[in-house]
Amino acid sequence: MLHHISFGVSDLARSSAFYDAALAPLGYVRVFEHETAVGYGKEGGGDKLSLKLVSEFVLPGDGFHLAFAASAPDQVRAFHAAALLHGGRCNGAPGLQPHYGSHYFAAFVMDPDGYRIEAVINGATVS
């Protein structure tokens, strides 16, 4: 349904370094770069997440978060570790999240600006 989503960020260099590291284990890379914006997606494809430098921004409320698809639990763990090493804050350690489903394996972080993001795999092969 969605084509892409954009986040306004306070420091583009800091945010892009964070997303470079956090999204790499999930197979997402920078697909475009401009002095005021950076886009992420699959190699050779268009951007699905765009970071845009803004002078002021307001974080979405508690109900908003963005979940990135993973294909294996190790990717979720690597996403979480990389995010924490690059300025993210833990908002839920990697593991099964039975309150979301018996096969929902995810990790939750807050990026340097406070956006809530997640990496998740949800399938019968997860244990």
Automatic annotation (TrEMBL):
Gene3D superfamilies: 2,3-Dihydroxybiphenyl 1,2-Dioxygenase, domain 1. Keywords: Dioxygenase, Oxidoreductase. Pfam families: Glyoxalase (PF00903). Residues 1-122 form the VOC domain. The keyword Oxidoreductase applies. InterPro entries: Glyas_Bleomycin-R_OHBP_Dase, Glyas_Fos-R_dOase_dom, VOC_core. CDD domains: VOC_like. GO terms for molecular function: dioxygenase activity. This is Glyoxalase/bleomycin resistance/extradiol dioxygenase family protein. It comes from Chromobacterium phragmitis.
